[in-house]
Design brief:
Layout (H helix, E strand, L loop, with lengths): L1 H22 L6 H20 L1 E2 L11 H11 L7 H6 L3 H4 L3 H14 L3 H22 L6 H16 L4 H19 L3 H12 L20 H16 L2 H17 L5 H10 L9 H4 L1 H10 L1 H4 L3 H19 L4 H6 L5 H13 L4 H25 L6 E2 L5
Antiparallel strand pairs: 1-2
Length: 387
């Protein structure tokens, strides 16, 4: 229904308009900019935090995560016997990481049966961590454009649906990567381990241990081309399926996360190529190549320059497995840094203005497409409009 997607369309349009403050750019006094930034952050907190659905459960529904998380929230584990109850729980409980279950159970003590308050509280934490991620990673420019990128590309997927991974992403971005760039590997390991208690895919971010080195970009380009050919021809599919099926046969698929991964491997729905993933990488590749020298002259720039190329390799490696591509999103934070660096470094020319306007229009179209695919049916509404 068109009426159901109007709030979503207004949401992304609002952030697209805010992005033009940086893209054009518009002359706004610092106090007014701070007010606008606070407004944008509050919208991000309330929009996903205020969602509700009349569906209670169902893995075949676009909002299946909403129903599943609600069931988990309303069936908390007893904290004093947490590990014992977790060990004896059924599939729905054991398909969740223990850190998330503990967090959800603790929130039940705070908010009782008010699931909406839990969602609002959790989303407020996520947006605060997003802001902290920008600050902690030495990103000082173009916050409106970056928030639009987040709102159009990541927010509707992660803050609305993939809640556990959203928490893990936020933890790694806000503390993990900054600790690593500053040379504190011990704290980085601790942060990644903590994030993996909310979503096990956070362990993939350990690859960042190698991002402070000087990379030969030529090797990465050749590797990317080879992986693309192997993926397009189906060779990588066969290899991945063989490895995962062997791993599942060793670990067993009858228990929690193993069963969930088995479902992903067996279901063609979770193995789809999204060409847009590679199309959207082109402008960021342009920034990484055009400003390679300037980027690699600083620790922060070299770290995120290298992260971008590793992210491209992982996307090529997992391009036919959507659920694996999703696990690589810890490194999409390189997009934030590259965008901010472009705003800081590129001279204010007509080329720069058109580049940013076209990029913002692309992400606007991307988000509208995503809204029509996932939210057109009567799945979500908002608690303020529940009646």
């Amino acid at each position: 229904m068109i009426s159901n997607i109007i709030p979503f369309l207004l949401f992304v349009l609002c952030f697209w308009m805010l992005a033009q403050v940086d893209a054009l750019p518009l002359k706004i006094s610092p106090p007014h900019k701070r007010v606008l930034l606070l407004f944008a952050l509050c919208i991000l907190m309330v929009f996903a935090g205020g969602r509700w659905s009349h569906y209670e459960v169902g893995y075949d529904l676009p909002v299946f995560d909403y129903g599943t998380y609600k069931n988990i929230y309303l069936s908390p584990l007893y904290i004093p016997d947490f590990f014992q109850e977790y060990a004896s729980a059924g599939y729905e409980i054991k398909s969740m990481e223990p850190g998330y279950l503990l967090y959800s159970s603790l929130c039940t003590l705070l908010f009782g049966s008010h699931y909406n308050l839990y969602l609002l509280f959790t989303n407020c934490i996520l947006i605060i961590l997003l802001y902290k991620s920008l600050r902690n990673n030495n990103i000082k420019y173009a916050y409106f454009f970056l928030l639009f990128f987040f709102a159009s590309r990541l927010y509707l997927q992660y803050n609305f649906i993939l809640l556990r991974q959203a928490i893990a992403l936020s933890i790694v971005w806000a503390w993990g990567f900054p600790y690593l760039v500053k040379g504190n590997r011990g704290k980085f390991f601790l942060v990644v381990f903590s994030a993996s208690l909310f979503h096990f895919a956070a362990l993939l971010s350990l690859l960042a241990l190698f991002f402070n080195r000087n990379f030969n970009v030529g090797y990465f380009i050749v590797g990317f081309a080879i992986l693309m050919v192997l993926s397009i021809t189906g060779v990588m599919d066969s290899l991945f399926l063989s490895l995962m099926q062997h791993g599942l046969s060793v670990v067993g698929i009858s228990d929690g996360l193993g069963e969930k991964l088995g479902k992903y491997v067996a279901d063609d729905y979770f193995r789809k190529l999204n060409v847009l993933t590679f199309i959207e990488a082109i402008p960021f590749g342009y920034i990484a190549i055009r400003y390679r020298k300037e980027l690699c002259s600083t620790h922060w720039g070299r770290f995120y320059h290298n992260m971008f190329y590793v992210f491209m390799l992982l996307l090529a490696l997992t391009m036919n497995f959507g659920f694996l591509t999703r696990a690589c999103q810890y490194f999409i934070f390189s997009y934030f840094f590259l965008l901010a660096f472009y705003f800081q470094t590129a001279k204010p020319t007509t080329e720069k203005r058109y580049f940013l306007i076209l990029l913002s229009c692309y992400f606007l179209i991307y988000s509208v497409r995503y809204i029509f695919i996932w939210f057109y049916e009567d799945k979500y509404s908002f608690f303020l409009l529940e009646n």
